Each structure stands twice: as C-alpha cells, then as structure tokens.
Task: structure prediction
Amino acid sequence: MKTSALTITLLLTVACSSEPGRGRLPGQDVNAATSSGGAPANGSGGSSTNNSGGVTAFKTGGALGLSAGGGAGNTGGGGGRAIGGANSAAGGTTMSGGPNTAGTSAGGATNVGGAMGQPVSGDPGAALNGQRWETTSNAPQDAQGACIYTDKTVQVGGTPGAIYNVMLRFRGVLEGKEYTGGTAQGDPVGSAPVSCEVPVPGFHDSVQFYTGGMGDPNSSWSNYNLVGFTVSAPMQTYYLNALMLCTPDDTVFPIDYTATVQIAGGATVHLTQTDPNCNAIPNAVGFVLPGMTPPISVPGVASNSTGEVGQFAQMDVVSVTQ
Result:
C-alpha cells in the first residue's frame, strides 16, 4: 500500500479584472461593502445597494429575493473558459476555450492511469464524476440558522485501503470565502499589491482551491458560502472558493481548474455547501466582474438546476493513478 504525501496539481483559468479592488466593485456604492464602522458589512445589519439598479447586497442583511429564469448551462464544447463570449440562449457570459485537461471528455469519462503513476484497475473515482454543488432559495437550515445548500456523501471504489491520486476538475460559478489554517493553491504568498485597482501580475480577482483549515470566523467574509468536500481517508478537507488577494466581495466568479487529491479505496467523500446568513450572491446583474454579462454559463456544465440565477459547481474526474 502506498502512502505517499498528498499531491496537488492545479490549473487555474479564472476571470481577472483590472478594475475592482478587494471589497468593492466599480459602480457599487461604498456602503455596499462597508458598515458604518468601516469594516465590510458582511454580517447582520442594514441592507445596502449598488448602483446597477438598487439590487440588495446579499451579504449585508438583505432578504433573499432574486429568482429568475434563464442561466441554463451551455452544453457545447469542452475545455476551460475565456471571458467575453455571449450565451445566446440566456444572454449571459459564456466561458469557452481555455486549458486542455487530459482525460476529460464531453461525457465526463474517467481516464484511468497516466503519467502520475501506475494504472489503476477498475474505476475508483466513478462515484465522484459529475458531483455538484448548487444554491437554492428553499434550502433547509441547521440549528444555527445557516442554509444547507449541499450535503451529501459518496463512496469511492478501488481496493480498500489503497491510496489513489485522483485528479479532479472543478467548473462553475461561485462566490468567495476566506479560509484559515490551510494552504491556498495558486495565489502568490506575500503582501497584496499597493492597490488592487491596478493590475499586478500574479494577483487575481477570483477564487481558488484551498486545502485544510476552515472558514475564518473572524473574517469580514464569515457570512459567505462555504463550498468544499471532506475525504474520510486520508482525512482531509478541501474548499473550492478561497479568496485571492484582490477578490472583491458581493461577486460571483467563473471557475475552471484542476487539483489532485489523495483518496483511499473505499473512503467516503462528503460534499458540503453552507451559507451562514442564507443570502447567496446571485449570478445576476450587479454581482459579476466588469465586462461579464450575467448569468454566466460554463460550456459542458449545466447551470443551477433550480432555474434560479444561483451558484453552481461541478466536479469531474480527470485521472486516477496509484
């Protein structure tokens, strides 16, 4: 049985903007991102609006109320994404092109074996292929009042106890959250640029993969959605929507990246998505990066199945090796 250390392979293709600074998008009222005390108003309290038509900022205490049709996923070609395409069916931005991720086909087939190691018999990652996270306006709540958008467990195959390196591809549209105690994959370590209003190579307006830790309870982003999964063996938790150094708040972002995690044969994988204040940022006007047209869709990935302009993410298995 191989017990090599966790290996992470990450390819990020995310939307970057030269305009927004962390915490505020151009065109949004400053009050939409700050409270009367100067801290970002992501907790409870009064509502705030942006300048795109008075939409209530979803993380400042406003009621959840955006629900609209459209946003259906573009089921066209594979690959990653590039910003700027128009989704003719829904009027939203479509992501197309981008990275070529070996092993992923339009049907989400698993590519067994490859350069990472020895081939694996069977298909240990089959249960993970196509698993999804989605927001909905009718989610159940836990004892603390947080909405539970996704809560499900799947079991992987393979030889019990054998350790597999599973390369996963994540695509979708998510809001960001600040995590602590773990490791971010992709964003440079160090101080933020002098101003996030000015583009700096290596600093991004998006979200990224994060290994270990938990949602930061002391962050001004503590009311944002936690999106991730926990592997029972080797025990580890991973998150899909960690902040980068210039990530603006009250915004949703298209994601398309790969990450490699270790999973033992027979282990369980628990998918979770929770929202402390039940106000998910909508995939709608006023809540996307400049230059993008909502609702954002992702080729080959269905949009939110509820028919709402909500968030969604899909996990597909690229390869499994031992």
Residues 1-57, 60-91, 94-121 have pLDDT under 50 and may be disordered. The first strand starts at residue 11 and ends at 12. The two ends are 9 Å apart (CA to CA). Residues 32 and 48 are 5 Å apart (CA to CA).
